[in-house]
Amino acid sequence: MVTATFRFYEELNDFLARPLRRRTFSCACARGATAKHMIEVLGVPHTEVELILVNGESVGFNHPLADGDRIAVYPKFEALDIQPLLRVREHPLRVVRFIADAHLGGLAPLLRLAGFDTLYDNHYPDADIEALAAAQQRIVLTRDRELLKRRAITHGCYVRTLRPREQLREVFERLDLAGSAQPFRLCLMCNAPLRRIAKDEVGDRAPDGVLERHNQFVTCDVCRRVFWEGTHWQRMRALMDSVAGAPERPDLNAAP
């Protein structure tokens, strides 16, 4: 048995037992225990961690701990504004894609609205989420910290807020998504790409009054829903502007 000293910073303290928060504390560790193992034993999912310093040196999750080690654990640097050069990532993602668990049924369609490929099914077991995240290189979004401790999940985000629009703002801020958003590209229900459709192809998929007032339409080839720039679109446009702050205001005619 070895003893190491730990200090967790910023929002990582939310995962710790209350007596351990925002202070340095000693903890007994099994001989040969890794940094990842002990961080998660203490309650912090590895996907929430950006940097681990052991005795002042940056180490990876698999670093074995020794007696007397001093471990400092830092969260995502977007929240701390620390130089990106210090980031330690073994498996960087080339494309931002998500998979949301059953707790985030309201967030998933809002991420699709913003243009982010987001898988969601409230019947996904944790093992399926883990497998899909690994196979498709997706970021796991969840309010279940135990899910984020699964070994095959390399990228994840514990969502702290409860209401979908607040969750959207939280994810945008924590993962710095504003520059990557492409609103109104995906079907909110199916996660499939939307495409332009001629007005005379709409048929009975839109009310007569809508056909009289609008000329631009898009459709989803999976569910065959048709969308147009009505009052609901305007409300969603305002939401996207508020979270992404995009100077451009693409209309439905820009859909692929």
From TrEMBL:
It comes from the Bacteria. Residues 97-239 form the Mut7-C RNAse domain. Pfam families: Mut7-C, Ub-Mut7C. Coiled coil: none annotated. Residues 1-81 form the Ubiquitin Mut7-C domain. PANTHER family: MUT7-C DOMAIN-CONTAINING PROTEIN (PTHR39081), MUT7-C RNASE DOMAIN-CONTAINING PROTEIN (PTHR39081:SF1). This is Twitching motility protein PilT. The lineage of its organism: Bacteria, Pseudomonadati, Pseudomonadota, Betaproteobacteria, Burkholderiales.
